[in-house]
Amino acid sequence: MASAHDFTFTTIDNKPLDLKDFAGRPVLLVNVASFCGFTPQYTELQKLHETYGPRGLVVLGVPCNDFGAQEPKTEPEIAQFCETGYGVTFPLTSKQKVIGGDAHAFYRWIVEQAGEGAAPRWNFHKYLIGKDGQLLGGWPSRVTPTAPEMVQAIEAAL
């Protein structure tokens, strides 16, 4: 695969989600979980969506249960949790594997592009994809969505 635009997810409400539909817009893709110490980052992700969405940024949450079994809920439960608990209005995918041989193809591509060290190490790992579908950067869980380095990268991508 040549770019992130070559991948497809399924939305949390079971509809196709082709990343090629976001061509020309940067995408901040984040693996998320409901019962993680980093779960409050949903608030900052929503803030990025509200602030930069009108300028083209797509925030995309990818629920996963790979780390500490911190996302045991079903897709409808995850959607309700995000909406009622954090006011999330940005798109979410169906629950995905993000590490290992059975990881979603997008995450295997990340490792091919940037090396094994680029794979998520925990929930709320962030990847910024450029307008052209190329990987611009990755940030671990401890880097908050509105940290200066994240905001700077997002503004540069816009």
Automatic annotation (TrEMBL):
GO molecular function: peroxidase activity
ATP-binding recorded as keyword: no
Keywords carried by this UniProt record: Oxidoreductase, Peroxidase
Domain Thioredoxin: 1-158
This protein's record includes keyword ATP-binding: no
Membrane-crossing residue ranges in chain numbering: none
Active site (catalytic residues): 36
SUPFAM superfamilies: Thioredoxin-like
GO biological-process terms attached to the record: cellular response to oxidative stress
PANTHER family on file: GLUTATHIONE PEROXIDASE (PTHR11592:SF78)
Family of the protein in this entry: Belongs to the glutathione peroxidase family.
Name of the protein in question: Glutathione peroxidase
